[in-house]
Amino acid sequence: MATKTKLPTSQFVCSECGYNTPKWLGKCPACGSFNTMQEELVKVAPKTPDRPALSSIPTRAIPLSKVGYEKSDRVKSGISELDTVLGGGIVQGSLVLLGGDPGIGKSTLLTQVSAHLSKTHKVLYVSAEESCSQVKMRCERLGLNSDGLYLLNETCLEDIEANLDDYKFVVIDSVQAIYTAEMSSAAGSVGQVRECAAKLMRIAKSRNITFFIIGHVTKEGALAGPKVLEHIMDTVLYFEGQQEDNFKLLRAVKNRFGSAQEVGVFEMTDEGVKSVSDYSNLFLSESRGVAAGSCVTPSVGGNRCMSVEIQTLIAKTAYGMPRRMTLGVDYNKLVVLIAVLEKRCGLPFFSSDVYVNAMGGIRLNEPSVDLAVCAALASAANDIPIDKYTAIFGEVGLTGEIRSVPYAEKRVLECIKTGFKRVILPAKSMKSCEKYANKIELVPVQYVGQMLKALNLR
Ligand SMILES: Nc1ncnc2c1ncn2[C@@H]1O[C@H](COP(=O)(O)OP(=O)(O)OP(=O)(O)O)[C@@H](O)[C@H]1O
Ligand SMILES: [Mg+2]
Questions:
Q1: Ligand 1 test: best mutation among 79, 106, 267, most atoms within 8 Å of CB?
Q2: Which of the residues 51, 133, 231, 336 has an alpha carbon 20 to 30 A from that of 33?
Q3: Does domain 294-454 have CATH number 3.30.230.10?
Q4: Centroid of ligand 1 to alpha carbon of 104 (angstroms)
Q5: Which atom of ligand 1 is nearest to the CA of 138?
Q6: Residue 264 pLDDT > 60, yes or no?
Q7: What stretches of 4-79 adopt beta strand conformation (E)?
């Protein structure tokens, strides 16, 4: 008589080479990498005729015109900045991942959203990290009270699934604290996080439930389970900001239903997280126009444009090797721009330490900030401040030429709105902006040298 052997439900797979083993190993025997074995569920496919196929009706391809969909309006979260970052509101049945440093206010933000949504929908807040009474305490502190909001203190995903009933919105706080009973590894491990997220995705799509999932950030700043979560999610948001700052930024990293460039600005108050709608002076300093080394650039993120000040400091190198440090601006970009200024404009930086900072903790990844960084560096090197009412944008090429950038018109309009009197822009972008010449002085430039001349920096 054949004995029935229990099939293993999980296995350990090397993330480098794909080698699999039933037990965890510190070093992969196939490729020799350390710490790469991650637990995965074993998916058994039906092979024998006595085991029926999972689905008896095979899926067929259908023409696009025959595809039906529900035109569901987006649901407002009650927090205007969050709606903007989401692309106009919450899309039903989507998975939204909210990542951020410990204590930044992730639970606070989603408690507020849940309370607002619970006025019109059934909302479940799964708190795997805090007890129900702690969540209640937070709700009371924030002045939220809603009978439509249900709390669940549970960490096992299968039990959470059994509790989902007819909830339309579910918050999972946090994905690192829940586990699936099908895997033996501890909650928070890469395998667990990935499997839990995949299960939640299947539930969301099949039952049209919207999930807000909180994810903790690792030491390196990535969402735990390096990037594995981001592929599964519809929208990935990062909540950032210095612990001591009142202002926090919410950035979309990925969005299937809106722009991934969007930035939301929030203020942390005693009554919780509040949207900041007037951010025109948030990224500008008082010393602008007085101290040398600062320059303002209109930066576009998603649908909005913000004036951001870039500050630079140049100090004499104490050691043989000069230092370059950046905050909010790409390091490699700075190194290239310094080389362009040295070679094309004759500004010496080889014996100086250079520090660059974008105000307010914002990250400027656009090439359009190049010219403003160059202007700030030249201003610091010459110790001549740049006029307070001048804004600059443009991409700088290695030959020192200034290239046109997208959304030139939008940037000029932002400069007019913020009260600037002069804008230095790429000559190639001039055509689309000429119509604003009566509202703001437009200075088209073709080379970095021309920009320096326009600012009297050479
Ligand atoms: N009694 C209070 N009064 C005012 N602010 C408070 C109070 N309690 C907490 N906070 C603020 O709320 C923030 C914590 O918010 P929250 O618990 O939502 O963060 P979190 O991102 O969920 O943290 P974690 O990663 O630990 O779950 C704290 O940084 C603090 O500034
Ligand atoms: Mg929390």
A1: 106
A2: 231
A3: yes
A4: 7
A5: 8
A6: yes
A7: 10-14, 20-21, 37-41
